[in-house]
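Help!! Second protein's tokens look totally different from the first
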Amino acid sequence: MYPPKYLPILVFCLLISCKNTNKTTKSSMISKSKNEFISNLKTNCSCEVDSIKNENTTTCDTTILENKSKLYYQFNCDSIWLTLENKLGEKKIIYSEKENFDNFFQIQWRLKYVLKKEYRKYLLFRSSCPANGPCNFVLIDKSTGKVKKEFGELIYDHDKKLFYDFVLYFSKTHNEIIVNFIDSDRQIKTDINKQDFNSSVPEYQFNKIYYYNDTITLIYNDNKKIIIDTKKYIH
């Protein structure tokens, strides 16, 4: 038995011990929860028998969209796929490669859907880029995962890689440049001299693109300009 004068000290020590034990338990629970979370994120994000695929296929980072949907890549030893998951947990695969995965896993950074711009209702992806040639830009409805439109190559500043509320592309006849405001689906068509754009990839002839005070300025062939005042077309 402890003398009565030591009882307050003993009680104090017991309280401290209980608090520390509680903290340790909570810390252990948090650590376990964190590890489980990390483990879940890495599900279907590796090929156990091929380290080269692990290092060269893709990352499996999750992008949280403005509408709380999630966008994430996964892969295994024989395929890669991109999932769009809405806030209700409903999933839709919007890109996948299986048939040619073994041949092309190392260049998925050029072939897969790469998110370039999030709009209010849509997602703009770049995909299908050959070694030296035009890519294909795809517009996906971010609520349904369905393809809204395929543009082919776009006109944009390849140095800044900046995308605006609109996209720019040639008309099918290459005698117009179309400005497409994505969320409003408003289009502006500007006549051009198609003889000025006769390279194999005419979109690459544009050096710089500026957008200021509702005016788009396109610099091409180093010093020529196309100026589009978008205010003139607001109805």
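Here's the second one for comparison:
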Amino acid sequence: RGIIGTRLPLKRRLAAAMRPGVMPILVTTALALIGAFTVFSFIAPLAIEGAGLSPIALPGMLLAFGAGAVIGNIVGGQAADRFGATRTVAWSLALSAAMLVTFSLIPTFLPHHLAGPSLMGMMVPWGIV
């Protein structure tokens, strides 16, 4: 439909994944995304039961995460250009792991009147990393 280009068979497209260094990057990316989005399954119970938030707060939490993700994509690209992709990804994964640990600690150690706002406040930084 008006797009001109060379059609490549699937075998040639997938051949790019066999280049040295590409497969570890793909596996790391897949594991990081699986880990991050698995937590999404537990956001509602964590926020409502653990932190005492109202169900009406859930869309706002996800919106905050999305806003953080937009910022994170921009900042992450600039960081990769400035510091290198390996260093940027390593920091991002380490910070993401720290965020997930903190998510589990908030409802355990903070009272509901502090846990809810703390959880809400962490959504943007979590989206960024």
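Reply: Different proteins will give different token patterns, so don't panic. The mean pLDDT is 89.
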